[in-house]
Specification:
It is a single chain. With 223 residues, this protein is an alpha+beta fold. Helices cover 43% and strands 26% of the residues. The protein has helices at 15-22, 79-84, 105-114, 116-142, 145-160, 176-183, 187-200, 215-222, and strands spanning 26-30, 35-37, 45-51, 54-59, 65-71, 76-77, 91-94, 98-104, 162-164, 167-171, 203-206, 209-212. Strands 1-8-3-6 form a 4-stranded antiparallel β-sheet. Strands 2-7-4-5 form a 4-stranded antiparallel β-sheet. Strands 9-10-12-11 form a 4-stranded antiparallel β-sheet. A hairpin with a 2-residue loop joins strand 11 and strand 12. The longest helix is centred in the middle third of the chain and has 27 residues, at 116-142. The protein is globular and about 55 Å long. The mean pLDDT is 92.
Length: 223
C-alpha cells in the first residue's frame, strides 16, 4: 500500500476501504509539470494522489496566477466538481513525478452513497480545506509580503521539514515563481522578503531548499 501523508483523505480510511477505492479506478503516471486537471473545464473524473505532490493554482481575471495549495499523497482531487457537477475552479499540476488513481466521478459518487463512513471522511476534507482557505484569506488581508512569506515557510517546515542541529531543513518542490504565487506577491517582492529573513538569521536559502534557523521567530512574524 502506498504511503500517504497524515491528515489526507486516504489517511483517514481503513485499509479495506482504501483497497475498495483502488478497485474503482486505474493507476496513472504523470511527469513533473503535467496538468492533471484544468480550471474551468468540466471533468468526469476524481483522482486520488498515491505518490508525488501537486500544486493547485487559479488564474484571476487579470491573468495572474494564484497558488492555492499543495496536495500530498493521500489527497483527493476534483472533489468539488464531484459534489456540485460544475467545472473545476482550479488547475492541478504535478510538482514532481506523480502516481494517481483515476476514477470516474459517477462510480466514485455511487460508492460514497453506499459507504457513509467514507462519505463523511470526504466531507471532513472539504470542511478542513474551507477553513484553511478562510484563514489564509484573513491572513493575507492583514499581512505584508514578509508576513505572508513567513507563514508559507512555517507551513512548509511543518509539513515537510526535517529537524537537525542547525534548525529545520525543508526540501521544497516549489520554484521562486510558485512561492511568489503562493505568497500573493511578485517574485521581486518575495526575493526582497527572503533577503530580509536571511539578514535576520531566521532562514538560510539554497536551490529548492531552505534551512529554517528560527521557526518561532517566523511564527511570530506570520502572526
Amino acid at each position: 500500500m502506498t504511503d500517504v501523508a497524515p491528515g489526507t483523505f486516504l489517511a483517514s480510511l481503513k485499509s479495506d476501504e482504501r483497497e475498495t477505492l483502488h478497485g474503482l479506478g486505474v493507476r496513472r503516471s504523470f511527469p513533473r509539470g503535467a496538468a492533471l486537471m484544468f480550471q474551468n473545464e468540466p471533468d468526469g473524473r476524481v483522482m486520488l494522489l498515491l505518490a508525488g505532490r501537486v500544486k493547485v493554482t487559479r488564474l484571476d481575471h487579470d491573468g495572474h496566477e494564484m497558488l492555492l495549495s499543495i496536495r500530498d499523497p493521500g489527497d483527493v482531487l476534483g472533489e468539488l466538481a464531484l459534489i456540485d457537477g460544475l467545472p473545476h475552479i482550479a488547475t492541478v499540476t504535478a510538482l514532481e513525478p506523480v502516481e494517481a488513481l483515476v476514477t470516474a466521478a459517477e462510480a466514485f459518487r455511487h460508492h460514497l452513497e453506499s459507504t457513509p463512513r467514507v462519505a463523511v471522511a470526504l466531507l471532513e476534507v472539504v470542511s478542513r480545506r474551507f477553513r484553511e482557505t478562510t484563514l489564509k484569506r484573513s491572513q493575507f488581508s492583514a499581512s505584508d509580503t514578509m508576513g505572508r512569506l513567513a507563514a508559507r515557510i512555517v507551513e512548509l517546515a511543518e509539513r515537510y521539514g526535517e529537524p537537525s542541529d542547525e534548525g529545520v531543513t525543508v526540501t521544497s518542490p516549489l520554484s521562486r515563481e510558485d512561492l511568489a504565487a503562493w505568497t500573493g506577491a511578485s517574485r521581486a517582492g518575495v526575493a526582497h522578503a527572503l533577503q530580509s529573513l536571511r539578514e535576520l538569521g531566521w532562514v538560510q536559502t539554497e536551490r529548492r531548499a531552505l534551512l529554517v534557523r528560527d521557526l518561532q521567530a517566523l511564527r511570530a512574524r506570520a502572526a
